[in-house]
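for the writeup, i need someone to sanity check this before i put it in the appendix. the sequnce is what the collaborator sent (i think, or maybe the updated version? ugh). structure was predicted straight from it, no edits. if anything looks off just tell me and ill rerun, i have time this weekend
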Amino acid sequence: MNPMDPQPDLSTGAAPPPLVPADPYGPAAPIPAQPVGPVSYSPPPEAPTEWQRQTWGAPPLPTPETWFEPAPAPVAPVAQRRRGGGLGLVFLTAVFAALLASGGTYAAIRASGALDRAPAALISSPTSGTNVTQPVTIDEQSATISAAAKVGPAVVRIVTAGTDPNNATATSGIGSGVIFDAHGWILTNHHVVANTSSLTVQLKDGRQFTGTIYGIDTLTDLAVVKVDATDLPTAPLGDSSSIKVGELAVAIGSPLGTYSNSVTAGIVSATGRSIDTDTGSINNLIQTDAAINPGNSGGPLVDALGAVIGINTAVASNAQGIGFSIPINIAKPIMQQAIAGQALARPWIGIRYETIDLQLKQQLKLSVADGALVNGGQDASGTTQPAVVVGSPADKAGVKDGDIVTSIEGIAINGEHPLDAVLTQFAPGRTVTLGINRSGQTLELQVTLGTRPTNP
């Protein structure tokens, strides 16, 4: 389905909640000593206000011609007659010499170009309290402008055509994507290209290419599209594991399918969010208040340095300023697989777990405050499931029910970095080290990651 398709998808998902894709100051002056004597608390006489003048019949004050006080007119010095009369001549001679000197000084400064230099700022030194001049540099290019200029050329508009499998009617839609490799590799959302028979990729510079779906991700709402082109503009990739709540977030895409390469800015509102869609749940998302609309789906979320930190995927339709993006670190493994010509696949170790928080720690009296507790439970049908899947990579490595996974390859597992988000950063077939806390003892187990099954 497509973000502009009237049929339900991430653009028009059902509640709850409905989702749409989508000290500079110097030292204080001493206080003067107060005179000793009786203190009067009688207020000083004040001039009548304008309202009082009109009430008492006094003529109103005239409206000033300007809101600034006029400068007083210069007063010429008056020479006093003194005995001898020679002092006046000396005074006039001194004035004349001063004028000549000042004129020469002005000419010298003017010739040096000092009068044409940029003004300097007068600031107060925090150590000495004295004023120090520093040049003022005005940078007109904000972080948002810089980020948009750096990533914008690599943001594409994806126009799709296909058939709705529910009623066999023709469909069309428009979404966004971002070029991550100059040889025609594009990252977008799965729901942008799902159920399509043709793809047209439009670049900001006006070029158009026919695209094909290289592969889709069964874990997240991601897909890789390929076009037959080279030397394409690419977007730099950031590190979504290091983003901070409150930092700048810039969204670029084609909202409503019409306004291509639109730029909106906001902040990172939260991380580690989970949402439910008509195709399942998506976890570990970035929440942002940067405006995201239908058509923005598949476009990049960019940080202040102009690096892609997420792929915009959905927005809450019953609220304002609540949008979601898939962290770019989750997407990096499948991007690398695509460039290498491999099938898109996700890692799998075969355990069921709960992320430890303060409540779970207190409830089960655990010895650690972070990690993933390996334990079984019941699935949606009420069937009891084992903590470790028999024959899985975790089972072969010796992971047991009740173990606490504290790290993967040295990356700590906690609320901000849950096990599944960290695990997705590694490709199937790689051997990783699991840090395990087993009954208070610290262990390290080597696990060779398997490939995530369609229905794990």
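Helices lie at 50-56, 86-112, 143-151, 190-193, 328-339, 358-364, 393-397, 419-423. The chain has a mean pLDDT of 77.
thx in advance!!
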